[in-house]
Every structure is written in C-alpha cells, then in structure tokens.
Amino acid sequence: MRHPSATAALLAAAVLGGAGLAPAAAHAGTRPAPVRAAWLASCVDHKHDDNIEPCGHWRLLLRDGRRLTVRDAAIGRIDAAGYENRDQSTFVVSADGRVIAYERARDHRLVVRRVGGTATVLPARLRPKGVGTDDLQIKLSPTGDKLLIDYEDEPARLPTKVVTVATGAVAELPARDDALGFSGDGGAVLASRYRADHTMALRAYPLGDGSPAAGTPPQAVANAMLYALAPDGRTVAWLVAADEVTKRPARVRLYDLDTGDVSPAVDLSLARGESPYTLHYAPDGTLRVITQRGGEGKAAVIRVLTADPRAGDVRQLDRYTISKNAYAYFAAGE
C-alpha cells in the first residue's frame, strides 16, 4: 500500500455498490476488466489543523483504463468500542483482479464482492466483541474464493480464520503464528513463528487434508523482506531488498520447506527510487513482484513483474500509475 492514479481523461465512470455494478455506457452488458488496484483520495481537513485524511469513496482502476466507485465501502475503521476513526479502512483485491473485500460503511461488516457480480456479507461474529476493524488484517486468496482474517491482539489469543466465501466454512490457524498469505492455488496458508531461541519457523498449512510443511530456514531466508508460497504448498519465494552500500540489487530466491534447498537468485533491475513491496503467486502459478516509485504528492508508478529464479528470468507484466491525490492504495494480489 502506498500513495498514487490514472489519467482521468481516459477513465469512464461506473458505480459498484449495494445494487451491484453499473457498467459505463460504452461497456454495458460486458464483464468488467480485471482490477489493477483500489485507491482512496486524500483531502485537507480544515477543521482539524489541516490534517490530510482519506475522503470520498474507494475507486477501482481496471486494466482497460476504466474506473469503478465502491460506494458501500467504509473509508475509515472503527475501534474496539465501535467508534469510527479516520484511519483508512482495509481493502484488498484478489491477485486475478476479479474479487474485492472491504468493510461495509453502514455497519463495518466484512464484504466479499465479485466485480460485476454478487456480494457476500460475512457473519458479524468474525469480528469478536471487543475487537475493532482497526485490529483486523484481511487477505484474499488468488481467485478470491477464500478470505483470511488475522487479529492483531496482544498477547495473541484469537486464531487466524480462513473463510470459504461460497459455503461460509471457517478454518482456524494457530494464534501464535503470523499469517503471511495464501499459496498460489489458494489451498494453503504460509505462516511464520518466532521462537524463544531467536530462530524463525515457516509453516505451510493445508486448508484441506494433510499435514503442514514446515522448515527452519537459514538466517538469510529468515531476514527476507517478503515471502510467497507456491501452488505446490512447499516452495517459498523470498525477496531481499537492495543494498545501497554493497550495490547489490533486490533479488528473489526459492526455499524448499521439505528439503531446505535454496535456489540461485534472480536480480531485479529497478529504477532509482523504485522499491518492491509485494510478492505473490498468481493463480496461473507465476511468481509476481509489485514495485512502486513516486507517491508522497506525486503520481506513483506501479510495475508488476514476473520472476523465475530457476530460469533467471524477470519480465514486466504490467505498468500503471495511481493519482498523486491518493491517500492510499492496494494493488491486486497485495
């Protein structure tokens, strides 16, 4: 998540809300293109020391350049007592760009919506009494069929929940683990746990039958900036940030939870000021890196790269911009 836009002159408007999607006239009757990112505008609050705050509605930037507005999504969160604050609400887009998840404005219930299709309002009990939405972190599976809900309680007592949207079935993961995200096929969740001996364990929990794949990675893996779990449920991609002192570029490698093997690295060729901030596997099994450059009052340039450490190959899959007036954004797969 960062600050960012798209060229407004190229965008046709549409509305996504309680009644569903109203396509722009030129595209009526067609299925909306996948979502690239969701973003929220910023405004100056002249009543409160000219603070910069989120405002308006969440907007979706589509791959064909169009924009949709999500009118029923909250822009702020609520605390444990139910009071609204001006911290921007959580909002996620599935890696395939077909599903979004957010908290509903009128009651802050979690909603999972297929873009151009139906919405599912999740049960209120998924946010226990005494827990605000400012204590929730959510992630969608790559195709949006499952939603992960992680609770930021301290000490950790509430287990992470994974909801299958179509059925409402809920699986639970240990509260002491930090959930890092879904595997590329959505069939497992990668999690980490720091031990008393200062080592880190990685576990891949299958959401069906089977035992978790687990490993205690070497320090280089443990110190990684980002992680992603492959569709096979055991291969972990990890990214190390660039080192300006040694002039070493950001690079991606693979770690096998079963064997402990580490692959050769593939370097990312990034522009000055460009940094990677999301790593995930797409539904087609490709490993993707999302990078950002700009923001903070300037339009942010977002690039989506595919990386294959085994083949030593990196390619640009997509490139777009987010408005300089954005307060925050979430890219698809983030």
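Second entry:
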Amino acid sequence: MPILYELNPYYPGTDLSEQARTIRDFVNTCFKYEPVRKFIDQFPVLEPISIYILKSAILAGYWNSYYGFNWTKEQEISFWQLVYEKRHPQSGAAILTLAESYRGNGIKTLHEVIDLYFDAINIDLQHYFSLTQDGGDELEELRKDPELNKRFLLIELNIWENLYDYSLADIEEETPYIIQRCKGDANLESFVKSKIEELIKRKSTSGNV
C-alpha cells in the first residue's frame, strides 16, 4: 500500500514503464528536495507519465508543495525548471506545471508566463482549460489585448473542431458566445466569423455534420 494517497492511481493495475515505476517508488518514501532532485537529474529525458507522478506526489493537487512535500518556493521553481529541461517533447504537463509554479509562488504573473501556456496548449488542447479555469482577473486583463484575445479565440475554434468535433448545430449555438468575446472589436469579429465560415465549410464538405 503506498504511503502517499496521491500515488494510488499509479500502483497495481497500472501499466507503468520502468522509469515511471522507479520514480514512483522513490518519491513515495523520500520527500526531501536535494535527494529527489539528485535522483531525477540522472534521467536524460523524463517520460510524460513520470512527470505526472512527480506532480501528483510533490504538489498533492495544488500549485505549490505546501500540502505535499512542503519545499521552499525557490526549491520548487528550481525543480520544475529541471523537469522542464528534461521533459519529453510531448509533455505539455511539464510546461504547464512550471507556469503554475511561477504563478503559485508569486514569482511571475500570468502575463509573464502566457507563452508557456501557449506552448503547453500546442501540445495538448486540454491544457487550455487550465488557463481558463485558473486565469481569473489576470486572464480577463489579457483578453483586452486584441492580439492575445485573437489567439485565445483561435484556440477555442480549434477545440470546437479537433477536440469536441462540434456539429453544425453546436457551431450555430456557440457562435454568439464567441463573438461576444471579441469585445466589440469589429476587425476581430470579422476575422472570427471568417474562421467559423471556414470551419462550417470543412464540416459540410466532410459530410460529418
């Protein structure tokens, strides 16, 4: 039985790689910063599942380790920078965790780490929801920037098409809401409407309506 409740999903019945099992067993019994960092530093590349295990153990579901390993903010930032450097190319979680650590420890604002969020979203569209759920007033402030708002809206349209596979009825229903988020910018509205028209055309052509 694991010591850390957060690691329960990664025990019997879970098909883990050798690296993931080794990391799981180590962080289940060793919580101190220096030994954990030294242990992780031996791996040239960290697999995505290994990064999720580290995140679960160290952070216990939060943005900092207060309820997990209770490291200092300097230790946390240094560690997640190391994980970022060693991340597998398809690990958006490593990028997202570093961004959240900067914000959760009061080191950087959302504006200062927004490019990290975009990098994570480029790997997995699901990471957009981490931004929208936890963006708060900072995100609303960023939406006032027309170019950033344009990027956000393009991501949402990408989600419509490639994550949710919206039907024509779904697109029609959601269009007024996304137009509202153009915040009265006529040029942006025109751009978004053109992108929606392109999406409708692709959907109609494919026959999957």
